[in-house]
Amino acid sequence: MDDPPDKRLRILLVTHYFAPDGGAAAVRLTRLAQALVARGHRVTVLCPMPHYPQGRIRADYRGVWTRQEMLDGVRVVRAWHWATPSRSIALRLISQVSFMLMAALRGLALSRPDVLLIENQPVFTALAGWWLSKVKRRPYVVNVSDYWPEYLVAVGVTHEQSLIYRTFKALVNLTQRQASAIIALLPDILTSIQGRIGPHPNAHVIMNATDLSRFRPDVETANFRAQHGLGQAKLVTFAGTLGNHIDLDTMLKAAAHFVQRPDVLFLFLGTGIHRDALQGQALPNLRWVDWVDHADMPAAWAASHLTFWAVHDNATNRISLQSKVYEAMASGTPLVVAVEGVISQLLARSGAGETVPFGDAEALAQAIASYLDQPTKRDRASQAARAYAEQHFNFETVVTRYEAVLRSVAEA
Fold first, then answer.
1. How many CB atoms lie within 10 A of CB 78?
2. pLDDT digits (tens, 9 = 90+) for 179-234
3. Strands 181-184 and 66-71
4. CA distance 197 to 67
5. Which of helix, strand or coil describes residue 247?
6. pTM
């Protein structure tokens, strides 16, 4: 039953990614907005024209400065921005600044909400939300899903003494310090935030979750296999963004161990800066699909014998938990990852798979082979993954906690 009218919140969500964009952030925030509407709240989303991951505004959204539409009960207000597929950091920053300016202007015409929910990445989008909260004299909750700006140092883009890093750090600190509440996706993210700005009186850790009714082991997979010509091979799948954090060299070396096995196919679903390197490789047992619509991901996970990836050895990757973990575990897909830290602890605790040391392609290949050749081991990990997801990744619990934080801030 919906809340009575005086209990319904008017929420303005400011984000750089929203459906029909792809990627983890768009999926997570779209699902949250729709769930809040389903609970009786009025949600307006201020976001750019759809552009991710291609880096180009979709054809049916071009040629206009702004557009408004309803998406499953959510009012979505889109503003033009200069999109680019370039990997250049400078051009990407220009793109982000263009949306910041357009969002700041377009947001002026929106009615005053009870509370704003601002996605903290990119920082320029957060600044637009911060400015709108001041203009409309309404409190805001900042949603922090990544280690930023620490990530820039971890992947070698810049260093802590550089002007660009110190500027980003100051802007991020501003938006987080002045928030009425902070929601962090992981405990270590909150630790990092408070290490920069000090203790915050209203800080919360609300971990990600997934739709357990959509992502499950028994999803039909024949259409997905036929669409991509996958046959009946055992799929060792990578799904996600091929970003700076991915150690593609280790992954390809591990895949090379299986070139003589026609029953095994390494499937890469996603795009990013490593796209050209992936396209240029000559492994006969590797298939790359540029992008898969999120509606097809339940079938992709269910079709996968297991999922694998490798990341570079740095402090950020040791404490990161990629969103693909939630969907894979809910789908009963065992995980084999070249990583140390948080994911290692999770897999050891849940029994959903195993990890090997950073950069160890030989150990990664051996671990993959053990799940391919030992059906009992694979089935045991699959069942453990699903059981853990059912206990810990319930999306309704996540929505309830977001709702409580937003209500407390609005009423205060």
1. 23
2. 999 999 888 889 989 999 999 999 999 988 888 999 999 999 999 999 999 999 99
3. unpaired
4. 37
5. coil
6. 0.77
